[in-house]
Write a structure and sequence with these properties.
Length: 179
């Protein structure tokens, strides 16, 4: 009985070592920066350029309105206005400020809706591309860069993901400006 007790832990430890050596297969891991991957696709770049063109007139209108408000503010600060003129300029400034706020709110809401639509459409396709790329390259796990404390740069497949996405989702070039 005294021989059995010391041998049992030794045998268990030996068995665990044998199992551990054979039981740990090497896991192939990759890291992707999904935000950079989405932003780097041709599709999103084209959508961003389209958004800039589409919303530029509204942005110009907002900036012009802001300049008008600034000019009215300068008039008020000049001290050259009569009390009646000062009152009129003040009321006009308040109306323009309200109009500016409304236009800015509408502009921001429309920009957000446009962006959300593009990101939703792209995000779903991006997941499929990452999965396909992981299967092709034999990755067992693909982690998001934001959830990783440390990784070797060689594990980052963001550029590969962008290339695979652009290959799977070709974008027609934008028509030349002015046509």
């Amino acid at each position: 009985m005294s021989l059995r007790m010391p041998l049992r832990p030794v045998l268990v430890c030996t068995a665990l070592l044998v199992v551990a050596q054979g039981g740990f297969a090497q896991i192939k891991v990759a890291i992707v920066n999904s935000q950079a991957a989405i932003a780097g696709t041709s599709e999103v770049k084209k959508a961003d350029a389209q958004m800039q063109v589409t919303f530029k007139p509204r942005l110009d209108e907002i900036q012009a309105l802001q300049k008008e408000i600034d000019a009215l503010s300068n008039q008020l600060q000049s001290g050259k206005l009569t009390p009646q003129q000062e009152n009129d300029v003040n009321n006009l400034g308040k109306r323009k400020q309200t109009d500016l706020q409304r236009k800015q709110d509408d502009y921001q809401a429309d920009i957000k809706a446009f962006s959300d639509e593009v990101l939703q459409k792209t995000g779903g396709k991006m997941q499929a591309v990452v999965k396909k790329l992981a299967e092709e390259k034999g990755y067992d796990v693909v982690l998001e860069v934001g959830t990783t404390l440390y990784f070797k740069a060689a594990l980052d497949i963001t550029a590969d993901v962008i290339a695979a996405y652009d290959k799977a989702n070709p974008v027609a070039p934008a028509p030349p400006a002015g046509k």
